[in-house]
Structure formats: C-alpha cells, structure tokens
Amino acid sequence: xxxxxxxxxxxxxxxxxxxxxxxxxxxxxxxxxxxxxxxxxxxxxxxxxxxxxxxxxxxxxxxxxxxxxxxxxxxxxxxxxxxxxxxxxxxxxxxxxxxxxxxxxxxxxxxxxxxxxxxxxxxxxxxxxxxxxxxxxxxxxxxxxxxxxxxxxxxxxxxxxxxxxxxxxxxxxxxxxxxxxxxxxxxxxxxxxxxxxxxxxxxxxxxxxxxxxxxxxxxxxxxxxxxxxxxxxxxxxxxxxxxxxxxxxxxxxxxxxxxxxxxxxxxxxxxxxxxxxxxxxxxxxxxxxxxxxxxxxxxxxxxxxxxxxxxxxxxxxxxxxxxxxxxxxxxxxxxxxxxxxxxxxxxxxxxxxxxxxxxxxxxxxxxxxxxxxxxxxxxxxxxx
Length: 384
Known about the structure:
Layout: H1 2-14, E1 19-24, H2 30-39, E2 43-48, E3 51-56, H3 58-67, E4 73-82, H4 86-95, E5 108-114, H5 123-138, E6 148-155, E7 158-164, H6 186-195, E8 204-206, H7 213-223, H8 243-249, E9 262-266, H9 269-281, E10 288-292, E11 307-310, H10 315-318, H11 325-338, E12 343-348, H12 351-356, E13 367-370, E14 373-379
Helix pairs in contact: 4-5, 6-7
C-alpha cells in the first residue's frame, strides 16, 4: 500500500508537462465556458458541476487567467493522497513536495473542505495539520491575507490539494472602479452575452445599464480586448512564474476596432456617470454611449438591429414584487413596438415577471446563482 501511495504521489507531482487545470464557473454555465475555452484553443478534458477541466502546462494556466472571460477562478491540482485519520494527514502533508510550487518567501492561506464520507471530517483540525506541515517542512508562513490560497478537499478519505492561481475573482477585470446597486459580474455578463449568441459584430443596447457591465463587456469582446490585461494574479507568486513569458502574453491593446457601437441608458444620472468612467478605464469610450433616460422613452439606435440585454430589478431585491409587474409589462410593450428585428435577453429571478413582458421567449435555460438569488436568462429570436 505504501509503495502504491508513493508511486501515485510521485506521478502527480513530477509530471509537470501536463497539469490538471480546473476552471471554476457558476453552476449552470459550464457548457458556455467550455465552448469559450474550445474556441480559444484550450485542451478541454470535460465539464463537471461548477467548472471545466483543461489539460496543459503553466503557460496555459496563465493564458486561462488572462483570456477566459467566463472564468471565475483557475485552479491547478498539485496532487492527492489517502488519509484516514489526522495523524496520517499530518505525516503525508509533511512529505508533500510543496517546494515544487510554493515559494518559501510567500505566505499562503489554507482552505479545507471536508465531507461526511471521510473519516477526517473536521475542517478546522485538518487545516491546522496542513498549516503546521507547510511551516515545519517547507518553511512557508501562514496568513489570512496571503496572496496564494491552497484549496484542500477531503472526500471519501482522499485529500486533493489544489492551488488557486487567480487570487481575486476573475470578474474583477482591474478597470471597474464604480458599481451601482446589485451589479452584474463581468464574468456572468460575458456568459449571458455568449448564450444570446453575441459574437461582437452587432450592436448591443442595455436600457437599464446601471454601471455599464453588459455594454462594456460587449465592447471589450468586440474589440478583442484581453479580459485580464489590467490586473494581477496569484500565479505571479508561484515557483513556476516566468515574468518575461507572461509579459509577452499580456495584450494591453485592442485587436480590432468594431464597426458597430454599444449603448446603455438608465434613469439614474449617478450610475450613468459611473458607466462612463468605467468605459474610460476600459478604453472603450469611442465605441460606447451612455445616456440618462427612462426605459419608456428609449428607441433603437440608428443602423442594423442587434441585441437588447437587460438586468432589470427583481422583486426579492427591492421587496415589492407586485409593483414590478407593470414595469415588466411596459418594458415588453416598448420592445415589441420599437425594436423589430432585435433579439432580447432579460435576466430575472421571477418567471412570472418575464411572462408579463409578453415577449416570445425561447425555451428556458438553467437557473444561475446571482446576488443570493436564482436567476435565469430569458431569450428571444429577432422580434417581429
């Protein structure tokens, strides 16, 4: 048993040519992220609830962080071993080749998740053993605000150790300083745009744009901007990091200038100012337009039709769902009367509210966790 354990252990840590990479996304969005990864040339091994598995070396880890617009985090599996009690966990954690990945001058944080299917089920006790092993065997300090996080899962007595190579969640692109109430995360906006078949060649209009997430994300996609071009990552603190290689991979400028524009409006002058500031930081002011307007006063921009995408208020967020029925009804009326030829995507937590719009929605997609609620994207084909 010991020989088999050591053999598997050595295989998991020495074969660095091909890493097990797990890209986290919101449950329900795995297929959309998988398609994005395939389109970008990643070697997709499969999807599991909560993410997409990739195969590749460290350059692919860096590229996934920089390029995937729908990714929440990028984990790399460092290895795994069996442990049936805390003393065994302590012993095997001390033999784990931490130095292959972690630097002794960079503190780490250890996050442990356990299951009742394991004999080791107390996460706090397991965390203490692993932290002590890191300190005693590898000289690595522990800190709650460490730039590197180890993710340890103990399931069915198998201890699986991964490192979070992203750091801050990847929806933090590095250029959005201002947000409105209940903002849409950039990663989720990118995946919703993808589910609406947006490919960057058509205009996008959000008549309840808030701080501009959908509009700016669409403009970035159309421009070929790299999602993570303006931010730092946890992988910069790992042994494998090559600053020169990553510098060549970063693409600070747009790849192309779109032939269409991207529009947002909102009744709140304050969030329109935020949206304009955010567009400036994202370097898309020349292809975006934000105006203060009630949604009842909107009209389609000049030119070919495209996509209207909206994240309107939900009843659970404002506490008065009944007052929203006339709002959704009027929204549907405006879109049907004025936006012929445009496709529509509406995100809401309430199927009844979506139905109130009277829009000819396609079959329902999955529900997605957002802001403490379960929301769904309701889509149409081009309106008559």
